[in-house]
Design brief:
It holds the Pfam family Peptidase_M14. One of its GO terms (biological process) is proteolysis. GO terms for molecular function: metallocarboxypeptidase activity; zinc ion binding. The protein is of the alpha/beta class. The chain has a single domain, classed as Aminopeptidase, CATH 3.40.630.10. Helix content is about 40%, strand content about 15%. The protein contains twelve helices and ten strands. Helix 2 packs across helix 11, helix 3 packs across helix 11 (about 290-310) and helix 11 (about 290-310) crosses helix 12 (about 320-335). The model is unreliable at about 200-230 and about 315-339 (pLDDT under 50).
Length: about 350
Amino acid sequence: MTQIQKSNSELVTQHYLGKTTENRTMYYLQISQPSDKIKKIIWMDCGIHAREWISPAFCQWFVKEILQNYKSDPKIRRFLQNLDLYILPVLNIDGYIYSWEKDRLWRKNRSPHMNGTCYGTDLNRNFNSSWGSIGVSYNCSSEIFCGSGPESEPETRAVAQFIKNKSSDILCYLTIHSYGQYILTPYGSTTKPPSNNEELVGQHIHLLQAVTCGTSLFTLLPFLQRKMAAAALMGKYGTSYKVGATSLILYSNSGSSRDWAHTIGIPFSYTFELRDKGTHGFVLPPDQIQHTCEETMLAVTAIIDYVDRKYFPGGAVMLTASSLGLSLCLSVILTWNVS
């Protein structure tokens, strides 16, 4: 991170976020194009679960791609005029290092419990969103131990306090995980859709009509769910992703960062579960790193571009008919809660 800042000082700054259980410093990177106007924020974190190594790899890839291509890519250049990117490459630093040095499949952080007889809290069950209500354990030996209370862990507190302070400026919260090949929307703790679901769907009806030449939304929706759910991802290598509310297409859980971010008012909040579907699981082979990052980059930038065009509609970049269709269909599905 220090090297990235030094070699890209015109765009990148490194900032202190907090300390981990084992007293390591958490930093995030801010990618910001100099401007006189106040800009909105896209937040991305990776590595909340220690064993999900492809996640920090993607955060690194994302930063690299933005910095290498912002001068030549009109879409990136445009959204950097309106949006700052905040990237936390490894949220769970202690657990991540432990997974490299001691236990490849370690998931949690490294906080001690019961006088050191067990270790670790699942940081993605520790946020203050229906904390402890479903899909968690109160047994500190469990992989889904939710901690002693909401934000009981220093890593969770550092992220939550920072995001709460910036919440009025954050338009999109992205958290990157593996595995399963999902793009998950709120909520995990209830099947009730988000409060802004009708507004989000309503915003997209005219877009659907434009893409489908007037085809009925309800006629088209099953096709979109099957064929276009993650169009940008599929467009690269044909990798299929399932998209929808966590509680409906994966499992129920509470205390997740994605749900919490939405409950404090961040309009767009997604969890990416990257490759694969279980053949290799958390131990994804190194030869899949680049392909995974390339296809995920397309999906993430499609989301950011959509957010940018929604909140800053003036001066939109010109898109080809095919790329517009893919982008809009992806946007429609990402904001539609499966019922």
